[in-house]
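1st attempt posting a full record on here, be nice pls
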Amino acid sequence: MEKLQLIQSLKHWCDLIWEYNQAIGKIYVYRDKLAIKLENNWYDPTELDRIIRQEYRFEISRSDSFFSADSVPEMVQKNTRLQEFDLWFCQKNRDLIWYNMRMEKLNQDSWIITGYNKSTEMKERSMYRALRNSFESILSTDVKTRRYLVSYSTFPVPDRLQEYDYDSSVSDYVRKYVYDEDKEQIIRALSLDTVMEKLQTQEDYSVFITVRQRDGSLSYKRVIHNYYDDTHQRITTSRLDISAIVNRYEAKIAEIRQENSIDALTGVYNRNYYEKNIRGASLQGFVAMLDLDNLKLCNDHFGHSAGDSVLKKLAEVIKAELRSGDKLIRFGGDEFLLLAQDCPDDEFEQLLLRIQTKVSEAAVPGFPGLSLSVSIGGTRVAGSSSSEAVMRADQMMYMAKAHKNLVITDRFMLQNGKDGIARLEKEQVLQQILIVDDSDMNRAMLREILKDNYSILEAGNGAECLSCVEHMGTSLSLILLDLNMPEMDGFEVLAELSKLGYMDDIPVIIISGTDSTADICRAYDLGATDYIHRPFNTQVIYRRVSNTITLMAKQRRMAELVNRQIDRTTKQQELMVDFLSRIIGYRSGESNPHFANISILSALLLQALQKRKNHYGLTEQDCQLIATAAVFHDVGKIGIPESILLKPGKLTAKEFEVMKTHTLIGDNLIKSLEIYHDEPLLQMAAQICRWHHERYDGGGYPDGLKGEEIPICAQVVSIADAYDALMSARPYKPAFSSEKAIQMILNGECGVFNPVLVDCLLEVVSQQKTGKEGTPPPKNLSTAPGGSALNTLTFSGSVM
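the predicted structure (as tokens):
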């Protein structure tokens, strides 16, 4: 009975309890947390050793012979009442386990063996030391007396038992050490009342501060508040130095800013760089637009890896010819914009001609048979904005592209007059026709018919035809193809040309002596443009060749016209949207830049969102629609009385309820355009109008939507609107600085936003910001998870 009582009491603190019976030479397992299935059974020591090693996969790194048949009896024979030693276990792929073992004589025949797992205690102590060492100070505040003790500090503390008033100490500390303009706001954020209010709804509450050190440098701290235990009687305030994290964050932002301005493929500046730094700017010198000829055909024929190699080679060749101060920008898929320093006109033209020559001579690694050419338009930036000059250069490039591998500049246009392009057309190289026939006589007949007006190339079989096509590409205007040829017949040639992607760009006319309906239909099915039966009339064959070439040229011009019309329509839509936004701004008292800013900021937020895990599934078209529709977000204010809309002071509760109806007015106004109800732009605009004042925690209006119930388009425009509105002057408020606006958003003063979008906003603002001279840009960091809003402040300090 006494033994059972002893065993029962030992279970409260022992992880292992065995009994060795000397009379029978066996071990009884009462308790074993590492091997629960062994409990309540007798085992031979050797058997127990085997089970633990094999079935439980434990290695015993110390006292290796402890479980052997002889070792336990040997320890018993020492007849020492108490023996104590350490035993180390290591289960495969697990942590090291440290047991403190005791072997104590119970009676004449029995010994009790107990073990206590010291690994858990060791880990807890190590974790505490590691956690404590990562903080600079830890305070413990009594919420009733509002006084605190210094539990831990890396700085000397005269008397650890001395209590201090929390709020007065915080106020003194902030005023003395914190590096921030609005210190009063920081004092409020750190006040005990604010801390207790925040901890009612969240597990911990963090504030970030910037501290001016004694040597004048800045360091960054995170001040974390949480209750000591469930009684909520004491609050622990810990201060953590996060300067290393901030510095890494700043370095990463600088790296991202650089990456966002550089094209990943070619290493030159990208369109984003142009939009941020060049568009609308006043420049001196020249601009040139360069377009790589036949990139689509290259991609279709050789694959996109070849197209990438071609673009990289083109950029490499152009950069090699640039002078100091010249800049190259990848403007579009196969278009590059060159910004050249001021120089004489003829020197600029020579630069472009030199680039043209070098490109045509360039060899693309891995694609030895690939020849390059580039069409270039260049103009001087004279008394016009960069955008106007780029537009002129783009128009000249399209003129050059109509002939391919051509340079057109202001000087060219001046020398050739208004008829310069027309003269060029007369002087250009004759169009090339490839005749494919195994009969020398047939090729000679066709050559004689066409030679006066076309440049003739010949191939005696299908293989020669394909080789010629690969070499000449789309410089071929037409292929005349015989069907009956040895090795590779005309049908096989057609199939291969179709496979390589040439059939859309090079028309093929079949000339054959067979009039089989099946052969004719098969040829057309494989992509042949026309079918001529031998014998043929010389005038008929000339006309059909001429008509086919002319028709293809018209189709190409039509495609260019369609693309230009699409561009023109897009610009007209943008003009109409801008005009409507001006009307809305005029009525609501808001400036037109506000609406443009919302559109631009929404686009930047969406771009940052797409770089993250895009679980919203947004396409480029979706992002463009959202950015465009964003300008309609406040269209409903048209229905709000001016007495409320333009009131300089704070609105009454009744007036604010009227103001809130602008979300519903805008939604209804857009939905009233029934004839356009299927237009994606208006569908997106209706969602934005109705829900751009909803908040992520459900505290918005008009429908009180919460979290992802709010469409992502409305979430994006909501945070963009809040940020720009804070930075804009209104009848009832002055304009705040970017730093102040960010702080107010992060402190939840404008409601709660999607944390992912808040991070996107921080990234966008950091990328756009240059910082005032002599003043470092603010360090805006998000708090740890758990808050209803991101309580992030920028301020400085030392020890609290």
